[in-house]
Every structure is written in structure tokens, then in C-alpha cells.
Write a structure and sequence with these properties.
Largest sheet: none
Oligomer: single chain
Number of strands: 0
Number of helices: 10
Shape: elongated
Order of helices and strands: HHHHHHHHHH
Distance between the termini: 44 Å
Radius of gyration: 22 Å
């Protein structure tokens, strides 16, 4: 059986946040939207057969939103939420990266010109992990290229990274 809770559970978090954003976080309006959505789609064979498929659910939610909001409003809210989720993922991965680099952090800072350059290295490495979906070594290579670091300094950094990348 299709329920509001199942829809919220299996829809992408970005789209659930977009719905909340479009309805200005008004709980009553959001609940009404989902009730109407379930009512309109309770006989939808595609949804019944794919209740746990977030792509199907997201597509149907977007169609339902288009009945109330313009595509521009939906697009703007969706983009805002996607950026927010991306930033959150970068923050979470930065914490994981910091933990991983902790044993070699002081050595890395020494090999960079200053703490600011090290922070830039961390930022570029994290972005490579999140945005480009690269592994740690490839993210480090890309970060070093961006920072125009090469030669012996680059080799030393790569060796240190290899020692902590399991």
C-alpha cells in the first residue's frame, strides 16, 4: 500500500527538502501535498510496482509539484537543495579526510608553503572525492596539479598519502 510515509522515505532527500522549501516549511501544506499525492497516485501501476524506486517517486512528485508551482520555482528550489546537499557531503567527507590525514598532517603542513596552502590542498582533495567521485590518490593528484605542485614535493606528498590510504 502506498502511504505518505513510504513516499517520504523512498523519495530522494533533495526532493523532499525541495517540497519543504516550496511550501515554506509549512507542515500543514506539506502534509496536504503528500496526502493529495497519495490520493492521486493510489492506482498508479508504475508507482505500485516501483514503490521503493526513488527515480519513479521523484518523477511523479515533480509532476505533482508542476500543478502548483512553475518550473522555474521548482528548478530554483531544487538547485538550492542540491547545492546544500553537495556542501553537506563535502563537509562530511572533509571530516573523514581529516581523520585519515591526521597521522601525517604535521608532515604535510611542513611540505606545503603554509597552512593556507595545506587548507587549499584539503579543499581540492575533498572536492575531487565528492564532485568528481575520484579515489583519494587521484583526488590528491588533481589537487596537486591545481596547486601547481610537482617534482620532489609532489612525490613526497603522494608517498605520505599512500601510507595512510588503505
Amino acid at each position: 500500500m502506498i502511504t505518505e510515509d513510504k513516499i517520504k522515505k523512498y523519495a530522494s532527500t533533495v526532493l523532499v527538502s525541495t517540497v519543504e522549501n516550496l511550501f515554506d516549511h509549512n507542515k500543514a501544506a506539506i502534509d496536504t501535498f503528500y496526502k493529495e499525492f497519495v490520493k492521486e497516485n493510489k492506482r498508479n501501476k508504475k508507482l505500485k510496482d516501483n514503490q521503493k524506486d526513488n527515480e519513479v517517486i521523484d518523477e511523479l512528485i515533480l509532476e505533482e509539484l508542476e500543478k502548483t508551482f512553475t518550473q522555474n520555482d521548482i528548478g530554483r528550489a531544487l538547485q538550492t537543495e542540491m547545492v546544500r546537499e553537495n556542501d553537506k557531503a563535502i563537509e562530511e567527507l572533509a571530516d573523514v579526510l581529516d581523520e585519515k590525514l591526521k597521522p601525517v598532517e604535521s608532515q604535510l603542513i611542513q611540505w606545503f608553503d603554509d597552512t593556507e596552502q595545506y587548507n587549499q590542498f584539503r579543499k581540492y582533495t575533498t572536492e575531487g572525492l565528492v564532485v568528481s567521485n575520484l579515489n583519494l590518490k587521484m583526488s590528491v593528484v588533481k589537487a596537486l596539479k591545481t596547486l601547481k605542485i610537482s617534482g620532489m614535493q609532489s612525490a613526497q606528498i603522494m608517498q605520505l598519502i599512500s601510507s595512510v590510504d588503505d
